Amino acid sequence: MITCSDSRINPALLLNAQPGELFITRNIGNVVPSYLIEGSTQAAIEYAVNVLNIPKIIVLGHSNCGACAHMYHEPKEDEPILSHVDEWLKNIVPAKSAAMLEEHQDSSKNIFELTAKHNVVVSLQRLMEYPYIQERLVKNKISLEG
Ligand SMILES: [Zn+2]
């Protein structure tokens, strides 16, 4: 499972899972970065798929995600500089673009919630770019869920 660092999310409770049943990697915004760059999320995915042979990857996004809301935040002068956060959240830019397009077509939708939804979709799309996941998808040895 790939989910957000948000303390309100309790994956084991949500899925009624016992210790040993879930392999979880968490980060700000439940992001799956590109396969082409190095990082701890990619390492966790690689280990889970290639060593643990997990049958399914769940990307669990959530409502009221601070990472998605931060995408629309205009920093003020007295706020701390969040250089690592800002760099990390560049991973959410494609989701923001998709959300803005959808909101443009239907302004009754909440832009933050749209961003959170598209962020899950983008993460699933990125997972499909990982060669060893592609290989397993073709053989029906793994499934992806958002
Ligand atoms: Zn979040």
Task: Please outline what is shown here.
44% of the residues lie in helices and 10% in strands.
Strand arrangement, major sheet: 2-1-3-4
Strand content: 5-15%
Query: What is the rounded Rg?
Result: 16 Å
Q: Could you give the distance between the termini?
A: 10 Å
| Major beta-sheet overview | 4 strands, parallel
Oligomer: single chain
The top level CATH class name = Alpha Beta
Low-confidence region ranges:
none
Strand-pairing-aware structural class:
alpha/beta
Bound molecules: zinc ion
Q: How many helices does DSSP assign?
A: 7
Query: What is the N-to-C order of secondary-structure elements (H for helix, E for strand)?
Result: EHEHEHHHHHE
Helix content: 40-55%
Number of domains: 1
| Name of the CATH superfamily | Carbonic anhydrase
- The count of strands amounts to 4
CATH architecture: 3-Layer(aba) Sandwich
CATH level-3 fold name: Beta-carbonic Anhydrase, Chain A
**Overall average pLDDT:** 96
Shape: globular
Summarize the structure in words.
There is one protein chain. The protein is an alpha/beta fold. It has one domain (2-145): Beta-carbonic Anhydrase, Chain A, CATH 3.40.1050. Helices cover 44% and strands 10% of the residues. It has a four-stranded parallel sheet, covered by helices on one side. The chain is globular, with a radius of gyration of 16 Å. The site of zinc ion has 7 residues, from α3.
